[in-house]
Amino acid sequence: MSEPTPPDAPAPDAPPQLLGSEDVSLDFRSGGYALLVALLLVAGVVAWRVQAIRSASHAAPSHEPSLEPCLVERETLVRAAERHGIPRLSQPRLVSREEAQTLKLGRRGKFLVSGDLVVGVGEGEAACAFPLRFLQWHEAIPHDLAGTPIVVCWSPLSGSAAAFERAPRGEEGQSLAPLSFVASGYLHDSGSLLVDEHQDPAQESLWSPLLARAVTGPAAAAGLTLKRVPLEVLRWEDWQRLQPKTRVLAHDPARIKLYKREPYRSYEGSDTLRFPVSPEPPAEGPGPKAPVLAVQAEGAWRVYPLPWLEARADAEGYVSVQQGERALRLRVWKNAPELPPAARVVEPEGLLSLRAYWFAWHAARPEDATLGIQAP
Q1: How confident is the model at residue 183 (pLDDT cuts 50, 70, 90)?
Q2: What pLDDT is stored for residue 55 in this prediction?
Q3: Segments in 79-229 forming alpha helices (H)
Q4: Mean per-residue pLDDT for 326-351?
Q5: 144 to each of 2, 122, 316, 352, how far by Cα in Å?
Q6: HSE of 323 in the Cβ direction (CA atoms, 13 Å)?
Q7: Does the pTM of the predicted model rise above 0.70?
Q8: Which DSSP category does 15 fall into?
Q9: Smallest Cα–Cα separation from 204: which of 215, 188, 191?
Q10: Which long-range contacts (CB under 8 A, 24 or more apart) does 124-128 make?
């Protein structure tokens, strides 16, 4: 059951109020002039918001999280949407794999098809799949993973998935009380930031899923970090084969129209970045929105562009690479032509891996942006 929509929030089937998320075709014979004026006004608001964050040297407004201290470049910190404009699921409903096979989105349309991408966490009876079709609208969903409160995140503009324990870690590694994380509407390097909700907004902080730490506010001042939860971004067909006892995040019936839409398709189909990013990736190498799998082994990260892995995979979909002293074996799954491939590390087990667009990983962690393979 979803949380009731606030009085000032959009209707249940309205998309997240992410500025610039969809292309608009102007027809001047049917009100195009008015729409053009409105778009120019929106552009002015975006510029004002970006400038306001860049030049802020005082406390944030009472309805906004604290931006002091700010541990990231203000030039790449943008408020792209109102917090209440991103629908939330405070009490997500889970269904069995068998029930998921029978569900439909409205009168037509399957709940899940074999090629749909899901974010999978947990193993055995604790396994759970979060379809990207739903995550792209909510961005952050709370979950209980075998008794541990976690949050599962997806950033549509940076193509990145993450999951964390909701109890942050102090500078000495001690576990603190769990926090309530939701999508903030803020972006850093075009990647979504979380906010820890408090009754007093001055106590709220912004958190970066890619950096796994607080980047503004009291939590940033205290040096708080987040403990990652291992996850996979796979096709539904492959995840359920890997975890046959998996449960699945069910849709919110009040937002069926929402889930049928693909608001980021035009964005995903171009290399254009709509918000500031620094540093940008080099011109040579993967395209800025090439999906990559970043893998940590022996204390070091290496980045594997998924299209390059797909090109190097053998007939059964396997690729062997050397990462430092470690020999890695990855499994690659081809997808529908309009969707990127999926991949996971199969040997050795237990390595931390993260998926994101190349530009997002390079901007967030330039020191960890070494490519693990050469272009095919």
Answers
A1: very high
A2: 34
A3: 97-102, 132-138, 217-221
A4: 91
A5: 16, 10, 35, 20
A6: 24
A7: yes
A8: P
A9: 215
A10: 124/243, 124/245, 125/245, 127/243, 127/245, 127/246, 127/247, 128/94, 128/246, 128/247, 128/248, 128/249
